[in-house]
Amino acid sequence: MIGDTAWRAGWLTAGRGARLLFGRTYEDPAVELAAFGAPCRVLAVASAGDTAAALAAAGHRVTAIDINPVQLRYAERRLAGAAPRDGQAERLLAAGRTVLRTLAPEWRPARLAPFLRLRDPDRQVAWWDGRLDGTALRLALRPLRLAAPVVRPALAAALPPRFDDVLRDRLRDTLSRHPNADNTWLRRLLLGPGTAPLIAPVDRFVPGDLVAHLAAGPPDRYDAVALSNIADGAGVHFGQRLADALRHGVRRGGRVVLRSFGTTVPLPADLGWRDVTGSERCPLWGVVSVGEVR
User: Fold this and answer.
1) CB–CB of 70/7 below 8 Å?
2) Nearest CA to 88 among 20, 26, 10, 16?
3) Cross-referenced Pfam families, in alphabetical order (predicted)?
């Protein structure tokens, strides 16, 4: 098992023992669907199950893996029809929304509803600049500058400096590219995650470390891998170990999708990374890249 990944701890904040981190996945699976093409053998970080579900629904043969056993059991049960639950991420986001709505009525659901129905990026940016990106938002996001005492140190280190300002810029950039009316991930952040069930025919749910799973398995076992942001907060040698495992466990030419809260791809450049950040509809990410095993 590879021990230098921050996700092994099973907590976003300080604590002991694995817990449910994510009740929903904050990734746009359209990125993976475009990158992977025709149905194939896919290994995907399980997280809350949304990306694995979208891939399975498109005909891919999906193996979902997670180093956090609580997270993996949740994803398996959720994709079998169990009701969604909130994890640490949802509780932190809910607390932030409560503060913001207290400070500024424009952030309350009824006021946001017409904004989230917009389809014109120019109107969206004008609404953002004129009504939403003000003092209240800056105050509500200011604690992100002090993330280190709250979030696990390795994860806090993955966040860019002045992450509050960075996140505001990422939100505005997303609004300038993608229609709000079609952006489930923006709505999930601003209003809350909702309670709709999610059912999908994922082939297998595997507990354990993705790097070890690839390295110990047969060569060319998979055609594509959805890594989420597995490398955020990882140790200095993790990127090379992951790259080596990908070359062993994924066929030559197989596609890999990686996200990061940071501003650079935290894996070796010889995987031929192509920046597709502009196509990602969730505004949290600094880098979304597609690589190819060579």
Assistant:
1) no
2) 20
3) DUF3419 (PF11899)
| CB neighbourhood size of 216 (10 A) | 12
Q: Among residues 118, 142, 146, which one has the least CA distance to residue 131?
A: 118
Chain-centre distance of CA 93, in angstroms?
A: 14
Both tokens assigned to 159: 């966040």
Q: Residue 165: which residues within 8 A CB-CB, separation 6 or more?
A: none
- In DSSP terms, which residues pair with 260 in a beta bridge? 287
**pLDDT (0 to 100) of residue 146:** 66
d(CA 95, CA 101): 10
274-275: strand order across its sheet: 204-207, 61-66, 41-45, 222-226, 250-260, 287-292, 274-275
Does this model's pTM top 0.85? My answer is yes
Name the packing angle between helices 184-191 and 88-103 (round to 10°): 70
Predicted confidence (pLDDT) per residue in 25-55, tens digit: 999 999 999 999 999 999 999 999 999 999 9
Which residue ranges form the domains of the chain, and what is each CATH number?
Answer: 1-294 (3.40.50.150)
Pairwise CA distance, residues 39 & 6, whole Å: 31
